[in-house]
Amino acid sequence: MAKQAAIEMEGLVTEVLPGQKFRVKVQNDHMVLAYAAGKMSKFRIRVLVGDTVTLELSPYDLTRGRITFRHKVAGGPPPPSKQRRRF
Questions:
Q1: How far apart are CA 37 and CA 69, in angstroms?
Q2: pTM of the model as a whole
Q3: How far apart are CA 78 and CA 87, in angstroms?
Q4: 10, 63, 70, 78: most buried, per Cβ within 10 A?
């Protein structure tokens, strides 16, 4: 039997827990326990309280999920400029 596709949703991180786990409030006001996907850990993408994230939920257990993408904040600080130093 084939696996069912994951349910993709967006949510807001409300709490950071030990072990790369997070409490996320999804669009329909449900709380989900989510962990960071392997690529996020590999590339050291930090997820903080207040971040908007995209997560995948299993159709078998809708209380657990995997964070797959961290959305950029529109009003946040600009990225550091990479200027060359001249001697």
A1: 9
A2: 0.78
A3: 26
A4: 70
The vertex-25 CA angle with 72 and 30, nearest 5°, equals 150
The letter for the amino acid at 43 is F
* Both structure tokens of 34: 């989510």
Query: CB–CB of 9/54 below 8 Å?
Result: yes
Domain residue limits at 53: 7-70
Number of domains in the chain: 1
Helices (H), 1-87: 38-42
| Partners of residue 26 on adjacent β-strands | 11
Per the domain annotation, does 85 fall within a domain? no
Sign, CA torsion 53/57/63/64: negative
